[in-house]
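Encode chain A's predicted structure.
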Amino acid sequence: MRYEFHPEAERELHEAASRYNAEVAELGLRFADEVERVIQLLLEHPELGSSWTRHFVLRKFPFSIVYALVGDLVYILSVAHGSREPGYWRLRVQDR
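Encoded structure for chain A:
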């Protein structure tokens, strides 16, 4: 298995990490580490989510990784904050 970020999902990751770093030194790094931990878990067990478009809630941060399985690819559609409108990322599915 391999993974790839939708460009908007990658932007969301970087923006969230920057905001966390502005609040507390190194918090953005811990956030990025948590996202990486979840991605590695999804690569090992891609079936963890439900249906074609899946999501996995981060343990220590109010975010979910929204992803789709495309062959051997875990395609990350969004690094979605819990307060965002559900499904705002749906049009990104068409980009792949």
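The mean pLDDT is 90.
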